[in-house]
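Reviewer 2 asked us to include a model.

Predict the structure of this chain.
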Amino acid sequence: MKSEINSVVHKLLENKNIGLRCYKKGHILQRKGDENSKLYLVKHGLVRSYDIDDQGKLYTFSFASSGNGIYDPKSIITNQPSELFLDVLEDSVIGVINLNSLDSSTIPSKAKDIIISILNTSLYTMQNRIIKMMSASALERYEYFVESHREIANKVPQWMIASYLGIAPETLSAVKGKYYRERKSA
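Predicted model (structure tokens):
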């Protein structure tokens, strides 16, 4: 399924109406409070979405690597200012789609169908993650992360993974040790 989505995203990025841009590591694509109705399709690279609470604690919401899309669902659905930051974690090539333009005739209907499919798949993925976070142990959460984000598990700092999993970095360290010991003995 994931390879099919990657293929569809890459095909969509070939559309001349999709603006591809290069971004350097550290670039902020979106800030909390921005008016935003954009879907970012990562052709090459890595992007993350996150929030920072009033006490300054950071919560990683999602990651998007090559062939995946990332956006702020609440902002798009409610047409309210963004609640998430989006930043580039490595030099990236990203397609930027203004979702307000889906009503226009500049985007072919086949591309619109693909975009809607990407948005729906993203919501499905978020739902699965939330269910996993509510019901799984820290070890099961990490196993899920490695299975679903194999391509980035060794690319991002451990504190980001811990934030994504909703556990302390120290807990992640212990969980990773147990995970790799179990794999080695299997």
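Residues 4 and 67 are 10 Å apart (CA to CA). Strands lie at 19-23, 28-30, 38-52, 58-65, 68-70, 85-98. We have added this to the supplementary material.
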